[in-house]
Amino acid sequence: MVEKTVKESPQLFLLDGSSYIYRAYYGVRDLATSGGLPTNAVFGFTRMLLGLLQEHSPEYLAVVFDRPRDETFRRELYPEYKANRDAMPEDLVPQVPYIRKVLQALNIPALEAPGFEADDVIASLARRVATEGIRVTVVTGDKDLMQIVGEKIRLLDTMKDSCSGPREVLERFGVPPERVPDVLGLAGDTSDNIPGVPGIGEKTAAKLVKQFGSLEGVFRWKDLVNGKKRRESLQNYLDQALLSKSLATVRYDVELNVTLADLRRQQPNLGDLLPLLRELEFEALAVAFTPPPAGVVEIHCDGSGQTSGPGGYGAILRYGGQEKELSGFEPEATSQRMELLAAIRGLEALHGPKTVRVYSDSQYLVRGMSQWVQGWIRKGRLYTPGALVNQDLWQELVSLAAKHKVSWEWLRGHAGHPFNERCDRLAKRAAADGIRAAAAVRTEESNKEEKPIPVPAPPALKMPLPPGEMREFEADEDGQLRLY
C-alpha cells in the first residue's frame, strides 16, 4: 500500500483572486439558481478553491484581489494601460459579492491595497514571507508574476497542473525571473496593452536581454543589434520601452497591515457556509464541506483498472473535520479487485472499533457486502476454496468489517459527487504513477542487457452511467456467476 502524503510545511498559498474569478466564469457556463441568479463563476471559483485546499492543505492562505483599474498607479503612468479590456460581464457583476461571502464563510482572508494591483500585493507579501523562511506558492496563470519566482517562491497554474520555479521561467522566457520585466518592456504585452518596442517580439526581446544583460543594456549597445529596422525602433522608442518596463514591473513596497499569523488556515464557519451554498443551490459543494455525523467515520473509495493488468485504488477517510487520503498501485489486478482493495485499505487504516459508512460507486462491492455475503456464508461458499471469484479479498473485507459497525452505500459514479470524483482521481493517479515506476524499472533492467518486458497499457477510463440508469449485473441470486 502507498499512502499519499501531501503536506509540506510551512507554506503560504496566495491566490490571484481576479484571475481565478474569470477562469471560473469562462470555465463554467449557463448555471443559475431556480430564481434566475447567475452562479457559474461562484460555483467554479468555490470548486477550484475546494480542490486546492484538498490537494495541497496549505497552512497559510489568502486570496488577493485587484482594485478597479482606474485606481492604480499604472493607469496614472499610462492612461491606456489595460484600456483594451472589456468591462466586467453583466452576469458576473452580481456574483462577485457572493464569492466574497464564500471566502468570508471559509475564514479565508481577502486582501487588496488601494492604488495597487493584485500582482503588487502578491509580490510584496511573497517576498516578505519568503525572507522569513516560509515557502510561498502563488496560484495564478499570469505570466507577469514569473518575475517574482525564486528559491522559496513558485507559481502554480491549477488549470494546467504545472508549477514554475526559476528553471521553468528560464525555459519560458529565456532569461532568469528578475529579467522578465526587461523582456516585457521590449516586447510589450498585448493583454495589458503595454506597447513595448514596435517590431520586437518576445523571442527577440529575450535574446537581446540575454545578450546585453538588461533592457537598458540593449539600448546602450543598440548599434550592435542586428537588423536596420530593429536598430531604428530602438533609436526611436527608448522612452516607450522604459515606460513599458515600469508598467510590467511588480512593486515590492506595498504596505500591508497583515501578519503571517493572520493568514493561518482556519476551519470554515459552517453555520454561514452551508446555508450560503444551499441558497446558491450548490448541493454537491455543500456535501463536500459537511463533516460526517458525530462519532461516524466515512470511507469513500474507488478503484481504477481493466479486465486484467495494472490498476490503482483511492480512498478518503473523514472523521469530524479531519481527512486522510490513501492510494496505491497493483501491477496485476482487475477493476473489481481494485474496488475491493480500496475499501480494505480504508478499513485497515482505522484504529479501534468504529461506526463506519463506506461509500462506493461499485455495485459489486456494495451489493456484495450488504446483500450477498450472508448467503455466501450460509452456503459455505465464502470459505470453500475456489467457490468465489476474488475470494481472498471478500474474506479480508468480512474480517475487517466484523471489527466495526459498517454500513455500505452506493453512489452513482461520476455524477458530481465530490468525494467519489476525488477517489477516482486518486486511483487513476496511483495507476499512472505505478505504470511509470514499473516502466522505469524495466528500462533499467533492459539497459543491463536483460530481456525487456513490455510496459502495460494505462488503465482504460471508466465510462459514467447514463442519468437515471442503474446497471444490473448478469448474475445468479447471490450475484456471483457473472462477476469477474
Q: Can you tag this structure with a few keywords?
A:
alpha/beta; single chain; Rossmann fold; disordered N terminus; Nucleotidyltransferase, domain 5; elongated
Descriptive account of the structure:
The chain is an alpha/beta fold and 484 residues long. The chain has two domains: 11-248, 5'-nuclease (Rossmann fold, 3-Layer(aba) Sandwich); 291-426, 2-Layer Sandwich (Nucleotidyltransferase, domain 5). Helices cover 41% and strands 13% of the residues. The protein is built from 17 helices and eleven strands. The protein has a six-stranded mixed beta sheet with strand order 3-2-1-4-5-6. Strands 9-8-7-10-11 form a five-stranded mixed beta sheet, with helices on both faces. Helix 1 (17-27) crosses helix 2, helix 7 (180-187) packs across helix 11 (238-248) and helix 14 runs parallel beside helix 16 (391-401). The chain starts with 10 loop residues before the first strand and ends in a 37-residue tail after the last helix. Residues 1-7 and 459-484 have low confidence and may be disordered.
